[in-house]
Amino acid sequence: MSHWLTIWRAAQLVGVPRGVLQQQVRSGALVLTDGLVTTDELLRLYPDVKLEETGLLERVAHIRDEAFGKRLRERLLPSQEVLAQRLFHQTQELADVRRWLQRYHTLVIALQTRIHALQDDGATPLALSELQDFVDQGLAQALATEQADLLTVMDDMLKVMTAQVTVRPSGHQFCVEGHDTLLQAGLRAGLKLNYGCGNGTCGMCKVRVISGEVARTQPCDYPLSEAERAQGYTLACAHTAASSELTLELLEASGPQDIPQQQIVTSVRAVTPLAPGTRLLHLQTPRSHRLRFLAGQSVTLGLNRPDGSDVHALYPIASCPCDDRNLHFFVERHARDPFARQLFSDGIQAGDAVTVWGPVGDFVLADSARPLVFAACDTGFGPVKSLIEHALSLDNAPSLSLFWLATRPDGHFLANQCRAWSEALDLFEYELLAEPDVTFGALQLARGMRADLFEIDCDFYLAGPEAFVEALDAELRAAGVPAAQIHSLMLAEPVGEMA
Questions:
Q1: CA distance 219 to 201
Q2: Backbone dihedral region of 496: left (phi > 0), alpha (psi from -120 to 50 degrees) or beta?
């Protein structure tokens, strides 16, 4: 029996990015009807899909955790209460179908009784016999049990373990897994949701439930008015999906201009050497005040020194917005950067307070379904890493390519992360290049791109020193890449200490 699926669910079932299926739709290989695809059509395109080989839930969890460098999640299933509610909703749907079948069966039996009555009244035997056979065959066919196709079975299983959420008016979709709240799941999926504290206090994450049901999983103090409750409003940070399908009405940020400026006093969680000339600074925000930012943006870090003076520095965030409490920065050793001098001289220790101002910058992912190409030089890998992780959350790009230039021997300080992405994701490829001359290295990267990518309509994201970005930008434009498809971030040279 054929079953209708959204592109989001179809991609999840066959284990490919949504961007791949969208390309199939644009090429005519996959046919949509009112935005939906049938399981028959999907099986025609992917005839070899098997539940055992797909390992759907395990693959989704594995790719996400490997790509973001996290431990495997301990809990893949929702809580017992939420699981019970989703099962109850599916049972209700099944009960509704059975009731309709029973009514249909009763109607046909009544029709058979009328036919027998007509026979007793002397109607034409042959005509009544043909009508009786037609009714019997139709009833047998309607009540026959058809073998459901594999994708339908997989979809029913997923509806219990992962709820599908549709956002209005944007039409974006995401899934809620495990013990995630609606806010956590939406951020992991790369949505630009509106929120503040994230713990049920400020009320900024209010959403309206259009269809489906939610269940509260976290305590919340924000008082919704009676009018808001009557209209279906709830807090995304404190609730999860109780039904297998949920439709929410909410506003999403359209770009950097919709992200408010914030000032947060964070604490240093760890300072980790990545290479002799590079350290990872891990800051953690308070639970009640998280940083809302877009992938690729930067913030100013401020440190109060014992002598009463302050040091400030602008750094790109190297982590994904999906984890808004843990902020990562790649800090390069530089004599003219007072903040870096403090970090490399062990003047910044775990537990120290660091003030964060921001975010700033428009080096963010464009709303596009084209293949993505990233080019970074040295610590320009920081904002590029944030963009890549965000792109993986969106699961919308057909492919991702990374070109990373290192101008010093320890410049590829996270090459293992690139290998992990490549091994876990079929859609990701990368190339590492070592060259001390920035401009010459940029030209070499451009030649590599020209050999592999210029015949493809791509979006390019460039991050690094000014000489690197300008040289690569000029090469891309000369090759015919439209200016609107080139996005760049020039990392400014430190200018010295600020009083």
A1: 9
A2: left
Burial (0-12, 13-18, 19+ Cβ within 10 Å), 64: buried
Q: Are 489 and 463 in contact (CB under 8 A)?
A: yes
The residue whose two tokens read 């039409």 is 171
Write the burial class of residue 490 (CB in 10 Å: 0-12 exposed, 13-18 middle, 19+ buried).
middle
pLDDT in the model for residue 87: 64
The per-residue pLDDT for range 387-429, each reduced to its tens digit, is 999 998 887 788 899 999 999 988 999 999 999 888 888 788 9
> Strand pairing of 459-464 and 372-377?
parallel
User: Rounded to an integer, what distance in angstroms lies between the CA atom of residue 58 and that of residue 472?
Assistant: 39
Q: What is the 3-state secondary structure (H, E, C) of the chain?
A: CCCEEEHHHHHHHHCCCHHHHHHHHHHCCCCCECCEEEHHHHHHHCCCCCHHHHCHHHHHHHHHHHHCCCCCCCCCCCCHHHHHHHHHHHHHHHHHHHHHHHHHHHHHHHHHHHHHHHHHCCCCHHHHHHHHHHHHHHHHHHHCCCCCCHHHHHHHHHHHHCEEEEEECCCCEEEECCCCCHHHHHHHCCCCECCCCCCCCCCCCEEEEEECCEEECCCCCCCCCHHHHHCCEEECCCEEECCCEEEEECCECCCHHHCCCEEEEEEEEEEEEEECCEEEEEEECCCCCCCCCCCCCEEEEEEECCCCCEEEEEEECCCCCCCCCEEEEEEECCCCCHHHHHHHCCCCCCCCEEEEEEEECCCCCCCCCCCEEEEEEHHHHHHHHHHHHHHHHHCCCCCEEEEEEECCCCCCCCHHHHHHHHHHCCCEEEEEEECCCHHHHHHHHHHHHHHHCCCCCCEEEEEECHHHHHHHHHHHHHCCCCHHHEEEEECCCCCCCCC
CA neighbours closer than 13 Å in the CB half-sphere of residue 202: 13
Please state, in angstroms and rounded to a whole number, the distance separating the CA atoms of residues 173 and 167. Answer: 6
How many Å apart are CA 162 and CA 344, to the nearest integer?
45
Confidence of residue 54 (pLDDT cuts 50, 70, 90): very low
Alpha-carbon distance 180 to 476, whole Å? 42
Extract the tokens encoding 358.
Answer: 């921001």
Beta bridge partners of 189: none
pLDDT at 330: 96
Q: Residue 479: is its pLDDT beyond 90?
A: no
Whether 232 shows a pLDDT value over 70: the answer reads yes
Query: Are the beta carbons of 274 and 344 closer than 8 angstroms?
Result: no
Instruction: Give the C-alpha separation, 39 to 5, whole Å.
Output: 7
Q: What confidence score (pLDDT) does residue 319 get? A: 94
The answer to whether 200 touches 220, Cβ cutoff 8 Å, is yes
CA distance 375 to 460: 8
